[in-house]
Amino acid sequence: MLDQILPGGVFSLALVFARIGAMVMVLPVFGEMYVSSRIRLILALFLTVLIAPQAGALPALPVQAALLVPLIGGEVLLGLAIGGIARMVMVALHVAGSIIAVQSGLAVAQNVDPTQGTQSVVPANFVIMTGTTVIVLADLHHLLIGAVAESYRLFPATAPLAVGDLATLATGVVADTFTLGLQMAAPFLAFGIVFNVLLG
């Protein structure tokens, strides 16, 4: 009896872990470069154990091993899509910081961006680190964890992956990201235009 129940239970946990693990790896705050991969893995395993009983109906263990690929691959793709859309907030902060750097003349001063592991302008790093701090202080990271659990209500594991809807949503979010970054840097843009006009 146990050899019939255990594989199904392990498969259910693996299916839940595929989505949650992918989301945790790219979510803001949790998926930053300075957060150790081991910590992210432990957090993903912990959330998997907590969320798996509330994940609703899960697909049954397929008979053929080849059928595991679309099931697990779809969950990973969905997790990356949800986490990536949430990460667009940090991209908006980076856009705003880069515009501020250009307008303030600090675009030459660069430093290591701890969130991306690359060189970036100092104002962008400051804005991103401030945004990350605000997310943690305002307990908004709890909303991110809640979104991980809520994803099983909006996107059941037994439903087909809505690739078209996700692509449309991602396109709109990317456009809104640059709009938001431009709006946050609007005072610096206005100051730069007025300053250059008066200087001319």
Question: Topology, pairings included?
Answer:
Blueprint: H1 2-26, H2 37-51, H3 68-104, E1 110-113, E2 118-121, H4 122-137, H5 140-154, H6 163-184, H7 186-199
Antiparallel strand pairs: 1-2
Describe the structure.
The protein is mainly alpha-helical and 200 residues long. The chain has one domain. Helices cover 72% and strands 4% of the residues. The chain is built from 7 helices and 2 strands, in the order H-H-H-E-E-H-H-H-H. The protein has helices at residues 2-26, 37-51, 68-104, 122-137, 140-154, 163-184, 186-199, and strands at residues 110-113, 118-121. It has a two-stranded antiparallel sheet. The longest helix has 37 residues, at 68-104. The radius of gyration is 21 Å and the shape is elongated. The mean pLDDT is 82. It is a multi-pass membrane protein. It is found in: Cell membrane. This is Flagellar type III secretion system protein FliR.
**Strand order within the widest sheet?**
1-2
Total count of helical runs of at least 4 residues: 7
* Distance separating the two termini: 84 Å
Mean pLDDT: 82
User: Total domains, how many?
Assistant: 1
Identify the overall geometry: elongated
Quaternary assembly: single chain
Largest sheet: 2 strands, antiparallel
- Broad structural category: mainly alpha
Question: What percent strand?
Answer: under 5%
Radius of gyration: 21 Å
Order of helices and strands: HHHEEHHHH
The count of β-strands is: 2
Low-confidence stretches: none
Share of helix, binned: over 70%
